[in-house]
Specification:
Helix content of chain B: 40-55%
Radius of gyration of chain A: 21 Å
Distance between the termini of chain B: 33 Å
Shape of chain B: globular
Strand content of chain A: 5-15%
Shape of chain A: globular
Strand content of chain B: 5-15%
Order of helices and strands of chain A: HEHEEEHHHHHHHHHEEEH
Number of strands of chain A: 7
Oligomer: heterodimer
Largest sheet of chain A: 4 strands, mixed
Largest interface: A-B, 36 and 35 residues
Structural class of chain A: alpha+beta
Structural class of chain B: alpha+beta
């Protein structure tokens, strides 16, 4: 057996994928991209359980929980002797850290504001769940989750500004990223580094997972190098992007009644993913599991208040 | 819903005069807030005349500093700088390339959206040394402020830090983050005269506002000791900025032993 096969798996805990992305969280996407860049094997565990710091992602490795994407990466770097920044000098490392801070401590809050305050319906539309669950989620978001995020935005400080001012701040940060990237392949040069994990994690969320937002329009119209950049990263590290997204579940259209006791759903005419009429059979346990899964997956992480 | 603003007026509104509202001076420096020091440094760098004024009334965004200019209130140090750049046709970043402006902005984010919280933690949540900085008129006022700090200021700061995210870390983790950020600032600065090169730019006001404040008015803090021991180039830089733009720093500090409220008020403006 090779060393890679006997190596303990890193288990990453985060909420379920959406229809548009393997994860709704820029920090989870950052960590997953880091793992793919370093070639570290991992398994994804979809959960609503939050870390000790009340956030996603967290990992469990050799029975130990580690929270916060930056601390996780530092830990894995030490444990597995990895360093995506090995080619950078001191000034480049400093610059890389500064842009990481721009992304993670400022720009990400513009995304939170857009997703949870301005364009929430557009986000809920990305989740793989039944219409009833979406209605429940919409209600839950408006009475509870939005207030939590508003408190977070206020605590950060950016939430004290008007929507227009926040948009201006976000566009300024995006323009800075675009100008710094310029015509380089990756942010720090011709090879990917840790900053690319952070920036891809965030930019991909903005470009593909904020449909109809002003940020999406702004990037696509004014900052095409950032769009090309995310495509480059996907090609290199996420060739299975579509497979990693949530798959649209088949809808039940006709349910034949059964005369036999204990017999449940058999063959039903369903709408497949491509709109073709694929039929399949389900037992009652699978049905319950599907309903249960719909109730628990696709829901979004709740931060502690 | 916006709150009606009740910013304290400075009294006579003189045409084109800028009044900078803040929390006043301390025994060791001309202001208590790093954002205020950033803004006043910018004003000195651009030769825009201004008058600092002590206030306890908060504007609509609930943050200090804010300015009054020709009857108009502008809040948030970055928006104020954009406003004044436009009004007075100033641009400290004119000589920078787009990529350099981007780098400068990224360090501004590092300082204002990350390092700031670690410094606020050290200043307010690690010990009571902040109380020694502020010239209270009498012992009762000191006690009152101490209660206010325990009952309102510290819980609010903890809540803000938790919302922002950094407050979910342990003290050790927060101090490590401060060390990392200060190291990055020192590494990028190197032996340059100013942060982005041989000419000053806007980010120098930011770096001086935050790093200068902790070095000159918080020298017993973990971060100040870290900078003094490990980053002599950063110490030399803040000294240089102080000489250049704050030659009157010592005169602006409240004299030690001042306790009268009136004397303290007279120090403003």
């Amino acid at each position: 057996m090779s060393e890679a096969e006997t190596e303990p798996l890193i288990a990453i805990y985060y909420a379920a994928p959406t229809l548009l992305a393997p994860t709704a969280s820029p920090f989870v996407l950052k960590l997953l991209t880091y793992l793919r860049m370093t070639g570290l094997k991992y398994k994804s565990v979809h959960t609503l359980k939050m870390s000790s710091k009340g956030k996603h992602p967290f990992i469990v490795y050799k029975g130990k929980e580690i929270a916060d994407s930056t601390l996780i990466i530092q830990f894995l770097n030490n444990e597995f002797n990895k360093d995506l920044n090995t080619s950078l000098n001191a000034v480049e490392r400093a610059t890389s850290l500064a842009f990481q801070r721009l992304c993670e401590e400022n720009l990400v809050w513009c995304v939170v504001h857009d997703r949870w305050i301005v364009n929430t319906d557009a986000f809920l539309g990305q989740l793989e769940m039944s219409n009833m669950m979406k209605k429940f989620m919409s209600f839950y978001v408006s009475v509870r989750f939005r207030r939590v995020q508003q408190a977070n935005l206020h605590g950060h400080g950016i939430g004290r500004h008007s929507d227009e001012e926040i948009l201006q701040i976000g566009k300024r940060d995006l323009t800075a990223l675009s100008n710094f990237l310029a015509d380089k392949d990756f942010f720090m040069g011709s090879e990917p580094t840790l900053l690319d994990c952070t920036s891809f994690g965030l930019l991909e969320q903005i470009i593909e997972c904020l449909p109809g937002s002003e940020y999406e329009q702004f990037i696509k119209e004014k900052l095409p190098n950032l769009v090309a950049y995310t495509e480059r990263i996907k090609e290199k590290f996420w060739s299975d992007w579509k497979e990693q997204c949530a798959q649209k579940k088949a809808k039940h259209v006709n349910q034949p009644k059964s005369d036999k006791e204990g017999e449940t759903l058999e063959k039903v005419k369903v709408e497949g993913q491509n709109g073709s009429g694929d039929a399949y059979a389900k037992s009652s346990e699978e049905e319950d599991a599907t309903v249960q899964e719909k109730k628990t997956t696709g829901m979004l992480p709740v931060t502690d208040s | 819903m916006s709150r009606k603003m009740e910013a304290q007026s400075s009294g006579n509104v003189v045409k084109d005069e800028i009044t900078v509202f803040g929390f006043g001076k301390s025994f060791l420096g001309p202001c208590l807030s790093p954002f205020n020091l950033k803004l006043q440094t910018y004003l000195r760098m651009t030769d825009i005349k201004y008058k600092p004024w002590f206030t306890t009334k908060m504007p609509s965004k609930g943050k200090i500093p804010y300015i009054e200019h020709n009857g108009k209130i502008v809040e948030d140090s970055s928006f104020i700088i954009q406003y004044l750049n436009s009004e007075y046709k100033k641009d400290l970043n004119a000589h920078l390339t787009p990529a350099e402006k981007a780098i400068a902005l990224s360090f501004q984010r590092l300082v204002e959206d990350n390092l700031y919280w670690t410094l606020a933690y050290q200043r307010w949540l690690m010990d009571d040394s902040i109380l020694d900085l502020i010239p209270f008129p009498n012992r009762f006022a000191t006690k009152l402020f101490s209660w206010y700090t325990s009952l309102k200021l510290r819980p609010d700061l903890r809540k803000n830090m938790r919302g922002q995210g950094i407050g979910r870390h342990s003290e050790e983790e927060i101090l490590k983050i401060a060390k990392l950020d200060l190291g990055a600032i020192a590494d990028f600065l190197g032996e340059k005269e100013f942060f982005m090169g041989s000419q000053p730019s806007e980010v120098d006001a930011v770096i001086f506002g935050f790093v200068g404040l902790i070095i000159f008015t918080g020298s017993n803090s973990v971060s100040a000791k870290d900078v003094t021991e490990n980053h002599p180039n950063l110490v030399a830089y803040v000294e240089r900025m102080k000489q250049m733009y704050w030659p009157d720093w010592d005169k602006l500090c409240i004299p030690e032993g001042t306790t009268s409220w009136d004397e303290m008020q007279q120090q403003c403006g």
